[in-house]
Amino acid sequence: MSVSRFFHNISLPKLKRGRSADELGRPGKSQSPTDSATRRPAPRALTLATPGDLGLSTSSTLRNSSPLSTNNEPTSADGYVASPETDATGEPDLVPETSSPPVGAFTSTLVVAWDQVKNGPESAPGSSRVVNATGELEVTPLAEDSVDAALNVKNTYAPLVTAAVTVFEDSGIAQHIEDGIDHFFEGMPVFMNALDAVAEVHPFIAVAVMAFKTVYTLEVKRRGNEKKVIALYVEMKDMMAVLLQLQDIRDEKVVAPDKTTIEDRLKSLVEKTAEDIKACSNACDTYCKKKLLAKVFQGPLWDTKLLSFVDVFEKRRTAIEFALSIHTTETLEAMTAKLSNVDNSTKQVNAKIDVLMTMFETLVSKEQKTVAEIVAANGGAKAVRNNDKMLATLDEAVAKATQDSDIRSTGPAALEELRDDLMDDPESAVAKNMAVFSRKFEIQKRQIIDEIALVVRRETDRIIQEVKTGAHDRILDKSIHDIWKEMGWRGNVKARHFVLALRDYYLEKMQDEAPKIKGITVMKDDRTDTDAWAIKFIDVMHLQRILEAFDDDASGFITVSEMNRFTSGRPIDWSLPHWIAYWAIGWRSTIINYAKKIEMLFSKMESVHAKLLPANRQPVDQYDSFVWDAVHLLSATVKNAQIGPHQDKFAKYVEAEENRLRENLKAVDFYIDDDNTLTLITGIGRIEKTAFPLIYLLLERHYEIMKIGTTKVLSPREIIDAGNSIGHVSNALRIRTRDLQNIFTQQKMDVAKHFESFACGVFKYFYKESDLWTPEYLKSLGSDFVPYDGSKEELKPDEILRFPFQDELALDVRAYQYHIHMEPEEHLHASVEADATVVAPLKDILGQWYGAHYLEDERRGRSGESLEAITLTAGDGEGNIKGTGYSCKGHFDIEGTCTTNAEGATEVSFALTFGGTHWTKLVFQGQLHRDSDTMSGNWAASRTPTESMGLLVYKKNVTPEHLAFYPPPWALKENRARALWTFAIESIRLDIRRARWSWTYFKERRDTWKIYSNYFLRWMYCGTPLTDEETTQLGNLGLRIIPSDACFYGSRVERIKATTAIHENAWCDVCDGRIGGARIICLDCDVKKDNTFNTLDLCDSENCVNSVVTVETRTDLPAPHLPTHHVFKVRTTILGRQLGKLDRKARESLKEVEPLCVLLSARKAAGEATATPGSSSSALQQALAPQAPRPMSQASKRLSTATTATNVEENPVPSCGVCNGMLALPCWCCFHCNGDKLYICKACDDKGVPKLKGHPEHTEEHALVRCQEAIPTEEKVSVEQRLSTLENRMGNIEDRMSKIEQVLLHVAEVLKTENKTANFTLPA
What we know:
With 1324 residues, this protein is of the alpha+beta class. Helix content is 50%, strand content 8%. The chain is built from 50 helices and 20 strands. Strands 5-6-7-8-9-10-11-12 form an eight-stranded antiparallel barrel. Strands 16-15-17-20-18-19 form a six-stranded antiparallel sheet. Strands 1-2 form a two-stranded antiparallel sheet. Strand 6 and strand 7 form a beta hairpin. Helix 5 packs parallel to helix 15 (332-360), helix 27 runs antiparallel to helix 28 and helix 29 (651-667) crosses helix 31. The protein is globular, with a radius of gyration of 41 Å.
């Protein structure tokens, strides 16, 4: 059968036929009546009505104006077959059988044309490739033959090209693109069904169709759609629409004139298309996960990256169209016209990309515009990017201004994460996201396949054929259908009315059935009687919870779709009353049980924390401080509630749901990277339904990770991603809270009161956090301690961890392995042997280089950057370079290029990628100066030239030791001779001191290390903030340390940081530095009423401990903090849930040590601080006897009395548990050690945590309370007593005034009698 006869005999579905080119308003190729008469009828096509019916953008209509879109009748392909051999590209080799007729010009044209479409014009036979002066590839034209005539049609069809571009530009393409974005989702169901229909006939395209359906479903589930992303999906959709032309080819095995089947021709092309779809969706996924600040800072870079997929999709569409046209083309002239369109499409694509590039500047959300304005108001991206303090402030301002719902934590980890997000270029970010996205892609694809394969219909479900009488005919469940029909409801019903009607329905049904079964044994499978226990819970008492189960959007109305979704979600073997009873009583009990299990997991984590390797404690501390706060907002609402009845009837479903979530989490490796992934795991629906079991499963995995952290050094990224996974769940709960708040406000409800009862109150603390975090509540908290014995655990790091791990945190000494035995002059020859094939200019830059960083304003590096060493080698490909290097930030990899510009200068550009998680990528862009063996240029944290952070100079003819004295660029400009002379003097002095092994040389190295490590730790992580002078000194030291030393010093700083307790969200209230090491908390300072609980914290600095904190510094304090206040000290980070228990124990310990404080205060007053333990107490008693005691508490008074009356043997004075010396105030007492109390003098405590034989259990986890001199205390007087005292005083004043008045009257009488004051009158 010929191809044409095959098409005419196909029976196609009755669908609306497509419009003509004229009806669509596109420039189609007109035909004369004569041509129409001589041609056979075009094959009947399976087409849809309009591009709008399919949801296609109008812009795709413009593209279809080319001859490729015309339906020409295919010719017979008898006598041609496809060879099983394949060429280098994986495509079938197009060769004729020996028995076939000779190959004519037309068939040759098809072979060459297809090769050109796949690989470009340069791949055609007989062509040669030449690189022109500008570096572009030029293709030499083919010989003048029939093939050449088919390929070189550009001049012939130049008017057509111009017309196409003109139409593209003048027909309102921008408006067409906007229409495509606005209406993208409207026709998608019909379009997907059409693709599925074609895929059933041609299974080889299923891989592309499945990829498109998967990414489309992911995009639909995404919260908040980016218009830029939708624009790309419109292009993707238009590309997939070309595959609908396969409906005209019903047999993929029929061969074309070039002896190739459509399946062989398209199979590899379709597979590549599926890869392109996945790559585009990955890029979109990466972009959508970027923070708003990153989108603003990197806007142009991301626009370029996203728009590159427009070109990819256009090329794929053109290739598919051309492949299809080969099977529907019968003349050389038609083939030539189609081939011409391949070249024309490039101009159309370029024109469209230009328009899209302009549109992308406007396709930004209001939030992004707001952020851009805030950034501009703060000096622009360049000023903000390199200022950590401004960056953190701006991040908070942006979150408030835009109500940004992104996960936001605090502390150095959050700032580092934000900085990484800003600095990570699109190419790198997309590559890193691919592994995470692939897992998400696979789980979504699996769900689509499962939905198709597992179609379940329950016994109580109706078969809906046609809706004739009303909305009730669209309801699946029979019982609900009967109720809906009987009540005469339309498309929706008030939720309260429905629940009451449902209860009445089941009660009446039970009453009606009772007489019928009287005297008859009731069968166990009688559904109504079996569900009697469940029906009693469908009542007014449980009305609220049942309403919420049906009414997903909390609107107060239940729609038909909501009803069907609810009834379809129940287990296959459950009745509807059973399912309703679960939401009435079962779900509440389930979340209570999970809340208790969650709190128990936190207690287990707390016990594991003490056994973590020091290197793992800081990331785990950051995790704990964020995660517990986020989760406790949820669990605190129900953790103390009582579990309801009939839990055994729901256990099977709860277990199945937990297993479903666990399997979905395994598919994404227990990492939730965004809200879209969260929806994939939980399914569509209310987040509160699955939040508790999901958080429990995540915490269970995180607990396993922490247990591994007791024996292995974890990657910080392992813990950071764990915290972010919990953060995304918390973020979804906050979004749900915000949506519910808007709904309650619109319904004019009491929002706070309604949150108390809605969903068992799980959102009430998300709505108002201050109700939970009160001082009274936090001080009342106390978690149960669960001992952890790691010896009984069988840990499997390879199965649990996502990132590489180490056995220990080792110092980095790799740099010394190359340079430790090298003399200074040998550094000049430390180059890498170049490949013999490498030529200039690449050959000139290979080898060892040493670089120095300078700030852009030409001051030495206050950024703390050290000298660095790099080794460059030839990379893969022409002009590419690669290499390695090291500096204070550790080792890094190098990738870049070396090119020659138009002026003949050698331009060098490469990126430095560090192995650590908190160091961002640096980029160098500069030129090579051969006369001085120097590379100089700008260094920055991105590839945008305007983002330069300063100057970077690499030298090849200077040793690293001497480079430390090399003059900076501005010194050479000012006075080159003086600068070089100073450099020579300092270099010679260094060589002499090194050669003599001078003590001053080694002392200087030691002092440099101490100062540099101290300043660098305080500058980057914790401690008293650096002064301006110290910051300048740090920058100067960075340029004095050779790279090998800097690399080693950097690793030592990292080790110090890893072993130092850096307290999250704890800043010293005196010096304003982040507290690292010991943290001192005041017991006497409480915040004012109605203020959020906030402790007064001090670092261990003597100056800070002895300072006063005024109410101007801490406005939430009712009175200033004084150095004499009672305090306690912790050396490990403490969580919010631990603070209450520590506070209670510290206050109890204070009462216990108060007698000792009185004794030591008295001894200090008597001048006996030098007394030794065990001496006679007579001197102490004699000293105490004559003393006039100061006012003190009643307990102190009782102790003082007892001390003067008893012997010293009954009241011995304890000694320091470390040095065994006599205690003196102030000192410290451990309130964790059991048995005899452990006291430590101040001198011993300043040295750190000792290892004691008498108290082996004493560790840095134990807190200390300060024993200090007894402070006089005033008795507290009530307000009533004060008022009574005031009244008494006023009464006394009145009496005294009355007496004064009597005295004055007496004086007046005396004066009158003596006639000395005749006119005197007493004033009234």
